[in-house]
Amino acid sequence: xxxxxxxxxxGLIARYAFxxxxxxxxxxxxxxxxxxxxxxxxxxxxKGGWSQ
Length: 52
Hints:
The chain has 52 residues and is an all-alpha fold. It is 77% helix and 0% strand. The protein contains two helices and no strands. The radius of gyration is 15 Å and the shape is elongated.
C-alpha cells in the first residue's frame, strides 16, 4: 500500500509543481520503484550480498 501512496504523491507533485500529467509522473515513479527493487535484489544475490 505504501508504494501506491508514493506513486500517487509523485503524480500529484508532477501535476501541481511541474504542470505535467498526473499519470506520467505516477508512471515514472512506479517505474523507478520497480527498477530500484530489481537492482536491490540483484545486488543481494551477488557473492557476499550486502556484507561486502
